[in-house]
C-alpha cells in the first residue's frame, strides 16, 4: 500500500472544512439556564451538539446523544475503543471585539470567533480527520469515537454524566490544549482554612479587616488592611519604608487613628505562584512587624509561619517533588479577616503525580492546629499521567514528527486539561508551539493553516492508533 498523503487529503476538503467550521462557530453555544430536561445547558449548547451529531449521521457514522449532556460519533469495529474528547461549549464572548464574536469571519489567514481555538475549531479538525479515514475506506481494528462534551468551561457535568453511562475508551486524546503532547498534569486541590474566633482580646493595634484575592487559582494583585491604633504611632513612615525596601506600590491613609493600607502585587496563574507577587502575603509580612491583638496575631502569625515565601510548600512541610511533574506549588489565592468571623485562607495546591492528597491534607491539619485553624473544606482533582512508553504516546510522537518535522516533546504541566477526564488520555494540540494564546480572549482566532495541519495530524493519529 502506498503511503497516504494526509495533507493532500485535507487540502481536497479545505473549502468544506472552512465553511462548516464557520457554520459551527455561528452557533452561540454559551451556558444558559434552561427549563428543558433534554437541554441541560441551554438551547445554544444543545444546538451545537445537534449540529455535530446531525453532521455525523448524514456522513454515515453511528451517533448517540447521551441525554443532552454529551454525545458521540463513532466509526470502525473492534473490542478496543479510541476516544477523541472535544467540547462544543464556549465561554461568554466578553467585550472589546473588533469582529462579530459569532461571525466566523475569515481574514489574514485566520478564522475569528469565540470558540475558534477553544474548542470548536479543533473539534471540526478531529471530525474531518475521522471522516478522511472513513472516506479512504481504511480498515480499522478498533472503534473510534469523537466524544462531544458540552460543559467543559464550567463544571464538567458532561463528562461525569457521559462516563457514568458510557464506556471509557481504552486510550485517547483531547485536542483542547497544546501541541506536541501533554502527558502529565499535577493534581489540584483547593483547601479552605478557617480560623476559630477568639473572644475579647486586646493588643495595642487592632486589625479591623483584611482582604486580598477572590479566586483560588490566581495570585492576588491587591491587598487592603484596616488598622486601628489606640496610641501614638509612626506606622506611616514604617509602611513607606517597607514599600520602598520591597520596591512595591501601595498607600496608607489616616482617618483619626484608623489607617487603611493598600499594597499592589503582580497577578499570575495559580499554577505558577512564583511568577507573580502575592499582594496579600506581602502585606501580611508587614503586619507581622506590628503588635496586633491576639486573634489578628494568630491569623498573621499563621500566614508568616507557613505561607509567606513558601510557594513550594517548604514552610508547610509540603515540599514534594518528582521527575515527572516537578515541584508541588501552593498559591494563596484568597485571604480575608474581620473581627467577628476571624481569618480565612484559600489555598490552591498543585501536587506532583507521586504525592498523595491524604498526606497533604494531614500535614496542613497538623500545622494548623496550634494556630486555631481548621480545614473547612477541600476539593481534589487527581494528578494525571500516561507512561512515556505507552503505545498512545509512542504513536502520537511518531505522527507529530512525521507531519511537522519538529521534535515531539512531551510536556508536563501544573494545570489541568480536559484529557484528565480520560483514563489513558493526553492533550494533543491544537495550539502549536510559539503561537499566541487567545483562548477566552477577545478576538479569539485559529490560524487556518494550523486548523488544516491539525486535521492532517489527527487523521494520521486516528488511523495509526486504530488500524
Ligand atoms: Zn477548552
TrEMBL record:
Cofactor(s) of this protein: Zn(2+)
Q: Name one GO biological process term.
A: L-arginine biosynthetic process
Q: Output the InterPro entries linked to this UniProt entry.
A: ArgE/DapE_CS, Bact_exopeptidase_dim_dom, M20A_pepV-rel, Peptidase_M20, Peptidase_M20A
Fetch the CDD domains from UniProt. Answer: M20_PepV (cd03888)
Tell me its EC number(s), please: 3.5.1.18
Q: Does the keyword Lyase apply?
A: no
Q: Which family does it belong to?
A: Belongs to the peptidase M20A family.
Q: Per its record, how is this protein called by name?
A: Succinyl-diaminopimelate desuccinylase
Q: State the species of origin.
A: Priestia aryabhattai (Bacillus aryabhattai)
Q: What is the lineage of its organism?
A: Bacteria, Bacillati, Bacillota, Bacilli, Bacillales
Amino acid at each position: 500500500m502506498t503511503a497516504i498523503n494526509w495533507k493532500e487529503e485535507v487540502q481536497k476538503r479545505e473549502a468544506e472544512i472552512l465553511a462548516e467550521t464557520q457554520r459551527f462557530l455561528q452557533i452561540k453555544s454559551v451556558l444558559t439556564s434552561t427549563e428543558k430536561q433534554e437541554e441541560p445547558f441551554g438551547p445554544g449548547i444543545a444546538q451545537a451538539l445537534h449540529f455535530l451529531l446531525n453532521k455525523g449521521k448524514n456522513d454515515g457514522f453511528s451517533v448517540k446523544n447521551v441525554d443532552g449532556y454529551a454525545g458521540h460519533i463513532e466509526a470502525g469495529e473492534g473490542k478496543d475503543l479510541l476516544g477523541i474528547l472535544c467540547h462544543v461549549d464556549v465561554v461568554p464572548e466578553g467585550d472589546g471585539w473588533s469582529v462579530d464574536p459569532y461571525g466566523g469571519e475569515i481574514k489574514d489567514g485566520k478564522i475569528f470567533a469565540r470558540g475558534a481555538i477553544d474548542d470548536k475549531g479543533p473539534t471540526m479538525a478531529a471530525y474531518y480527520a475521522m471522516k478522511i479515514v472513513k472516506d479512504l475506506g481504511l480498515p480499522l481494528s478498533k472503534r473510534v469515537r469523537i466524544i462531544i462534551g458540552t460543559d467543559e468551561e464550567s463544571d464538567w457535568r458532561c463528562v461525569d454524566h457521559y462516563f457514568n453511562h458510557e464506556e471509557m475508551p481504552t486510550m485517547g486524546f483531547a485536542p483542547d490544549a497544546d501541541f506536541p503532547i501533554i502527558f502529565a498534569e499535577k493534581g489540584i486541590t483547593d483547601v479552605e482554612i478557617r480560623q476559630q474566633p477568639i473572644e475579647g482580646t486586646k493588643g495595642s493595634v487592632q486589625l479591623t479587616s483584611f482582604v486580598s484575592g477572590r479566586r483560588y487559582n490566581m495570585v492576588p494583585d491587591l491587598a487592603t488592611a484596616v488598622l486601628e491604633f489606640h496610641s501614638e504611632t509612626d506606622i506611616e513612615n514604617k509602611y513607606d519604608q517597607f514599600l520602598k525596601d520591597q520596591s512595591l506600590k501601595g498607600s496608607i491613609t489616616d482617618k483619626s487613628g484608623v489607617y487603611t493600607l493598600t499594597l499592589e502585587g503582580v497577578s499570575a496563574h495559580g499554577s505558577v505562584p512564583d511568577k507573580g507577587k502575592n499582594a496579600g502575603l506581602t502585606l501580611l509580612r508587614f503586619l507581622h512587624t506590628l503588635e496586633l491583638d491576639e486573634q489578628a496575631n494568630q491569623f498573621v502569625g499563621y500566614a508568616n509561619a507557613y505561607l509567606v515565601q513558601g510557594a513550594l510548600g517548604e514552610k508547610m512541610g509540603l515540599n514534594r517533588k518528582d521527575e515527572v511533574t516537578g515541584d508541588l506549588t501552593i498559591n494563596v489565592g484568597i485571604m480575608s479577616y474581620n473581627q467577628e468571623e476571624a481569618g480565612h485562607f484559600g489555598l490552591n495546591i498543585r501536587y506532583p503525580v507521586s504525592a498523595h492528597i491524604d498526606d497533604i491534607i494531614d500535614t496542613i491539619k497538623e500545622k494548623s492546629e496550634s494556630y486555631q485553624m481548621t480545614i473547612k473544606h477541600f476539593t481534589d482533582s487527581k494528578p494525571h499521567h500516561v507512561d512515556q512508553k505507552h503505545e498512545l504516546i509512542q504513536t502520537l510522537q511518531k505522527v507529530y514528527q512525521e507531519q511537522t518535522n519538529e521534535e515531539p516533546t512531551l510536556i508536563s504541566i501544573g494545570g489541568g486539561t480536559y484529557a484528565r477526564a480520560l483514563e489513558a488520555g493526553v492533550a494533543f494540540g491544537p495550539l502549536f508551539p510559539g503561537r499566541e494564546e487567545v483562548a477566552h480572549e477577545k478576538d479569539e482566532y485559529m490560524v487556518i493553516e494550523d486548523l488544516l495541519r491539525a486535521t492532517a495530524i489527527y487523521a494520521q493519529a486516528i488511523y495509526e492508533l486504530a488500524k
